[in-house]
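We emphasize that the prediction below concerns an isolated chain of 80 residues; any contacts that depend on oligomerization or on bound cofactors are therefore not represented. The input was used exactly as deposited, without trimming of termini.
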Amino acid sequence: MIDLSSLHSALRQRVEIVADHNFRERDPSGHLEAIKAAAAHLDAIIAGLPRDIDPNLRHYLERQSYLKAIAWLEESRTHQ
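Result of the prediction step, given as a C-alpha cell string:
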C-alpha cells in the first residue's frame, strides 16, 4: 500500500488556505498566491499517484471534491 499521508497533508493545507478569510481580507494578493502554491503542490502529488489507487479516491481528486477525499483518507486510516 502506498503512503498517502503527504496527499492528506496537501489536501488539508489547500482546504485550510482557501477557508482562511482573515488572510484573504488582510492580504488578498498574498492569499491568492498561497492558494496557487498549495494547488500546485497538491497537483504535483496527485500527478505522482499510481493509476490503480482506489476509484473513489481518484474520483474525488479528479472532481476536486477535496473534503470528500480527506474524509476518504481518514476513514481508510481507521480500517488499516
